[in-house]
Amino acid sequence: MKKQQQSCSNESVGNFNCFLDRNYKDTNEVIKYYSAMATNYDTIIDNGYYRGPKIVASSVNDIIEDKNALLIDICGGTGSTALELRKYGFQNIDCIDACESMLEIAKRKSAYSNCICELLLPGKQSTLNAEKYDCVFCVGSFAPGHLQPEVVDEFIRILKNEGYCVIGMREEWLYTADDYRDKLEPYMFKLKKWRLIKREKFENWFENHSGILPCSVQQTPRKQKILFHLSPL
Question: Domain Methyltransferase: where (predicted)?
Fold first, then answer.
């Protein structure tokens, strides 16, 4: 076990994949990993291996016209997606993430208006206010050992009526990860509180892995919230 942990501790792309493949069941181990790699995390993105932040930022920009809209990045880490959104003119971007070390780096970049260090768990309401945000988005937050399908209840709760949700993730996790296979998308749609308006696939989302992105609107008796799903090919 010690040898495996050592081989997975390197911040290279290959070993980041190794970390994801281990599918930790203890969220504290996941947070510990990100805390250890926080200072080197951006090198994966800066080297062009991870296109997810650019893809999701572009998609949010396509559906949100108001640059003063209030957005929140779920598990946004060091703020890479937020910085891409700022290039489009968005300024009001919050973040909720369980890793303080990652958020500290995001703060140095002035990526977010507000950083909330909090872990999102199934069946547990966060400290975020209800119907506060025009858009909830996340990039790679649905990965083995990370967010559980039921946390989308919280996405819906904090979205304004007619607000948008953009989720970007590796397509393979929908079919291979125990947490999501026959669970994530079926759960999202059985809620009947939002509707899918778009579902796109992208090649080379992360390294040579494809991605998928769904966009939805949450649905209430009178109004809707929208889900947009992006996924790598």
Answer: 72-163
Dihedral angle of Cα 141, 128, 193, 55, to the nearest 10 degrees: -30
Taking CA atoms, 2 is separated from 10, 35, 59, 61, 191, in Å, by: 14, 19, 41, 44, 42
10-residue stretch averages of pLDDT, the chain, 233 residues long: 39 58 72 88 74 91 96 97 98 98 97 97 96 95 91 95 90 87 91 84 64 49 55 42
Q: pTM, whole model, 2 decimals?
A: 0.85
Q: Which residues contact 36 (CB under 8 A, 6 or more apart)?
A: 9
Structural domains in the chain?
Answer: 2-45 (no CATH), 49-232 (3.40.50.150)
